[in-house]
């Protein structure tokens, strides 16, 4: 069962539905050319989401991610920060930590 997915820096313009990956804990799609995110509410276990350096104007795809703990979204032309973001968020007004996706590594897979 896949828990970590790093598809950063692949020039992706869109993401297909990720509903089948419902056990994902960490998703990194940084450095692509995404202008929107698919709805991610089925990723109930997602704790870390990195969308740095894309073309996102909104983060509407993250609504419903109640377990999200860290969000990295710098480098996007966001029109507004997410309405209900996690405690650690580099694009929200309520920054509570200096640790973001750009400076941390993805969690290591356990064997």
CATH class: Alpha Beta
In angstroms, what is the radius of gyration?
13 Å
- Reported by name, the CATH topology is Leucine-rich repeat, LRR (right-handed beta-alpha superhelix)
Task: Give the number of helices.
Answer: 0
Residue share in helices?
A: under 10%
Level-2 CATH architecture: Alpha-Beta Horseshoe
Task: Give a description of the structure.
The chain is mainly beta and 111 residues long. The chain has one domain (1-105): Ribonuclease Inhibitor (Leucine-rich repeat, LRR (right-handed beta-alpha superhelix)). It is 0% helix and 13% strand. The protein contains no helices and 5 strands. It has strands spanning 4-6, 26-28, 48-50, 70-72, 88-89. The protein has a 5-stranded parallel beta sheet, with no helix packed on it. The protein starts with a strand and ends in a 22-residue tail after the last strand. The relative contact order is 0.19. Residues 92-100 have low confidence and may be disordered.
């Amino acid at each position: 069962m896949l828990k970590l997915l790093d598809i950063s820096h692949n020039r992706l313009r869109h993401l297909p539905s990720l509903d089948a990956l419902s056990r994902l804990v960490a998703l990194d799609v940084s450095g692509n050319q995404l202008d929107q995110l698919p709805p991610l509410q089925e990723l109930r276990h997602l704790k870390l989401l990195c969308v740095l350096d894309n073309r996102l104007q909104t983060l509407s795809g993250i609504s419903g991610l109640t377990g999200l703990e860290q969000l990295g979204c710098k480098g996007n032309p966001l029109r507004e920060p997410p309405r209900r973001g996690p405690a650690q968020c580099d694009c929200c007004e309520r920054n509570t930590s200096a640790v973001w996706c750009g400076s941390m590594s993805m969690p290591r897979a356990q064997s």
